[in-house]
Protein: DUF4180 domain-containing protein
Organism: Planobispora rosea
Amino acid sequence: MPDVLRSIGGATVLVCGPDGPKVHGERDAVDLIGEAWYGGADWVAIPAGRLNADFFRLRTRVAGEIVQKFVTYGVGLAILGDVSPHTAVSTALRDFVRECDRGTQTWFVPDIDDLRDRLERLPPRPGRKTAGPR
């Protein structure tokens, strides 16, 4: 399935297909952000399986670099799927996921339905009809 724009929970989301290229770092993040901007998306949803294994090893700084790019450009980031195998072996990653999930910019969600529920609870962004990161 290719990457596709969808309206989810009042936001426009670029939903990345599970079989697309791996997201290795900042360059790939910027490419996805550009694709989101081109399509008018407020959020990008990436299946956890598309993230390079280094993303889940915080000492590599890949997760921080990717998340920072999304924050810098004001595009929300949702990681879709089960990350529990990674969080089970890393207290630091477990804490990182928990902190991200407390905010309104980066979330780790099990599926599109959970993403929809979370997006519906966000207030609309100023100047746009859709909900999204602030």
